[in-house]
C-alpha cells in the first residue's frame, strides 16, 4: 500500500465501499485497487475549507459570520476544584480548540469529523459570575458581570441558566460542530461537569442566491439593525478597551445568553399584516414599514395621510431602537433551536439569543427593560433561560484563553 495514503482517505474510501454493499470475497481486487490508488486528495468545497483563526486580538465567534450549526454549553467546576484546576482546564480547552479550528484531530479523536475540513469552526470561552468565587478570584470579577435584573417577561429555569464556564461552538457543518462539542466535553475530564447544553442552527451558507440577513423561526429577518464593524464606534460598543477594568478583560466582550421560546402557533395565527405591525418591518424583505429597503434607517416619526404613525408605538423595532434607549446597542448573533414537540403538540422552538457588548449594563439591560414595559412581540415569546458571561480577549500564540486572569 502506498505510504502517502492518509488514514482519513483510507477510511473514507472503505466507508463508501461498505455503504454500497460490496462483497469483499467477490470483488476484493476492486476494493484493493481503489484504496491503493495514488490519486490526489479530493479538494474540499469552499464551505469545508474555510478556517477561522483561533488566536487573535479577540476571540473568534463574536464578529465571525453566522454559522449553520451551533452548540452552547455551560460547565460548573467540580467540588474541590480551584484556580490551578481551572488554569489546567482552560489550557487543555485552548489547545484542543486551536487544533480543531485548524481542522486537525485532537487526542483520542472520535473520528466524527473525518473527511471534513474546519468548516469555519469557532470555539469561544467565557466565565460566569460564580467562577470567581469558586477560584478565589472574587476581586478580579468585573462590575459588568453583576447578575442581570429580573424582568416581568422571564420564566427562567435555573437549571438551564448561568454556570461557572461557558463554551460557544459554531461551524458550517453539523458533524464538525458536534465533534468539537465532544472534544470539549472530554477535555473537561474531572475538572468540570456540564450544567446545561443547547443546540442551534442557522441557514447554511450558499443556500440563498446571495448573502442575506438570517431569518428566525417566525420568518422575520433577525439582525438587520446590528452594529457594523465599519461603524466608527463599533469597538467601543462591543469590546472592552485595551485600558479597561479589569485589565484581564482587555479586548474582551460580555455575552448575554437567553433561551427564548417562540409561541409559534399563536404567531402563525396572525395575518401577514398583523405580524408586520408587531415587528415594524415587512416580512418579505425586512424593510421598515416607514419605507425603503432593509438597510434604510427606520423613520419613527413618519405618519400616513391620516396622521397615524407607520411604526406602531409598541412595534418591536421602535421599542428596541437605539434612539429610544439612550443609544444602547449590542451585536446580536443568535442561533435558532427546535427541541421537538411537547405533549400538547406545540413546538419547543425559538431563539438562542446571544448578544455581545462592552458593558451589559449599557447594552442589553436598558433595551430589555424597555421591551419589558411594552413590546408587542412579548405576547409571542417566553424567556426560559438566562446567563451572562465575561469573555476575555483572544489568546496570543503560546497562550491559553483566560491566562491573564488565572496567572496574574
From TrEMBL:
Protein location: Cell envelope
Keywords: Heme, Iron, Lyase, Metal-binding, Oxidoreductase, Peroxidase, Signal
Positions of the Dyp-type peroxidase N-terminal domain: 59-202
Cofactor(s) essential for the protein: heme b
Residue numbers spanned by region Disordered: 281-301
Classification via Pfam families: Dyp_perox_C, Dyp_perox_N
Top-level enzyme category: oxidoreductase
Database matches in PANTHER family: DEFERROCHELATASE, DEFERROCHELATASE/PEROXIDASE
Protein family membership: Belongs to the DyP-type peroxidase family.
NCBIfam families linked: Dyp_perox_fam, tat_substr_1
Function (record text): Involved in the recovery of exogenous heme iron. Extracts iron from heme while preserving the protoporphyrin ring intact.
Protein known as: Deferrochelatase
Organism whose genome encodes this protein: Streptomyces lavendulocolor
Lineage: Bacteria, Bacillati, Actinomycetota, Actinomycetes, Kitasatosporales
